[in-house]
Amino acid sequence: MTEIRKVGVVGCGLMGSGIAQVAGMAGYETVVREVSRELLDRGWAAIERSLGKFLEKGEITSAQRTETLARLKPTLAPADLADCDLVIEAIVENLEQKKELFAELDKIVKSGAILASNTSSLSIAELAAATRRAPRFLGLHFFNPVPLMKLVEIVKTVATEPEVVQLGLDFARRLGKTPILTRDRAGFIVNRLLVPYLLDAVRALEEGFGTIEDIDQGMKLGCNHPMGPLTLLDFVGIDTTLAIAESLFNEYREKRFAPPPLLRRMVMAGMFGRKSGKGFYDYSDPRNPKVNTLLQSAA
Ligand code: 3HC
User: Fold this and answer.
1) Ligand 1 centroid – CA 145 distance (Å)
2) Active site residue 213
3) Residue 120 annotated among the catalytic residues of the structure
4) Contact at 8 Å (CB) between 250 and 187?
5) Alpha-carbon distance 198 to 191, whole Å?
């Protein structure tokens, strides 16, 4: 296989729906698989919303919107991924669940096809080891919101064939993204730098350096970041960030990667950020988030 024609995406959540969308927009026939009709419908609605925004802004035509949706095939059946040339996993950030999925995909997806993970921080080599095709396995790490963010990290392991790395680079470019190459180390390039900063913002809050709003304003207005760190944490997901911090800490055993207690408590309390309606902010009215005052006093 020397060209990617048909793409599969497993998981239609925050990341998977975005990846399926940009693949469809770039002209790939794309199968997107979820485990329940409800999750599939939710992901599909996110794709329609995002395409609607592009249409409103005149960045795509209504014919392009229709063609994109026609290229996407939502499904619950893993067998529908069998003839894909590239299958990208974008499920929950959990090593065991991902390994189980890759072992299953390895059996279903045609031989020679490439398997990829969108993991933020788990070892690509370890995921590849759940299959019998480590040479045709790599990391393709997208950024949230996928339709807008220009970067894709291409993660090669010690076993990834150069041809597969090249196909990954070409694929990212065809999506209109800029790829960067990184080694298979927890956090790759971006999260290795970003996550300690986000964790430090939580520590600053815990230590009473400032209020939630002031910490966010500080980095928005003082450094021109589009979002303050606590808003960004809610956006990425508190649960996802905890999982990434745990991977980083497991790999490097350095204090700067250790998840602060408040982050863990928030996950225990179901405060996952924007996706669960509450994190550092309360999203009861999504267009007008309010500071989660409970947290301010608990911190
Ligand atoms: N699809 C299409 N268009 C979208 C969209 C989507 N999913 N989401 C937002 N937009 C559009 C909006 O319609 C709006 O258009 P307009 O300017 O014409 O009105 C525009 O994008 C800006 O959106 P908003 O006005 O709602 O908000 P912002 O100006 O704050 O922009 C943002 C939103 C682009 C998300 C910006 O806040 C941002 O860049 N934030 C930082 C994101 C970031 O750092 N992401 C990386 C996270 S780390 C990661 O993903 C790695 C993982 O492993 C953890």
Assistant:
1) 6
2) no
3) yes
4) no
5) 10
Is 220 a pocket residue for ligand 1 (Cβ < 6 Å)?
no
Q: Which helix (H) or strand (E) holds 297?
A: helix 293-298
| Same domain (yes/no): 50, 87 | yes
Length of the chain counted residue by residue: 299
Residue 51, domain member (yes or no): yes
Same domain, yes or no: 92 and 228: no
SS3 212: helix
> Domain range holding 267?
190-291
- CB atoms < 10 A from the CB of 162, how many? 9
8 CA distance to ligand 1 middle (Å): 25
* Residue 49 beta carbon below 6 angstroms from any ligand 1 atom: no
CA terminus-to-terminus distance, the chain: 54
Distance of CA 148 from the midpoint of ligand 1 (Å): 6
For residue 55 and ligand 1, the question of a CB distance below 6 A is answered with: no
pTM score? 0.94
Q: Indicate if 129 and 54 belong to the same structural domain.
A: yes
Decide: 151 in ligand 1 pocket, CB within 6 A.
no
The strand pairing partners of 141, in sequence order, are: 153
Does residue 141 carry a catalytic annotation? yes
- Which of these is catalytic: 17, 120, 121, 247? 120
Domain count, the chain: 2
Q: How far is the CA of 220 from the centre of ligand 1 (A)?
A: 14
pLDDT in tens, the chain (299 residues): 679 999 999 999 999 999 999 999 999 999 999 999 999 999 999 999 999 999 999 999 999 999 999 999 999 999 999 999 999 999 999 999 999 999 999 999 999 999 999 999 899 999 999 999 999 999 999 999 999 999 999 999 999 999 999 999 999 999 999 999 999 999 999 999 999 999 999 999 999 999 999 999 999 999 999 999 999 999 999 999 999 999 999 999 999 999 999 999 999 999 999 999 999 999 999 999 999 988 875 44
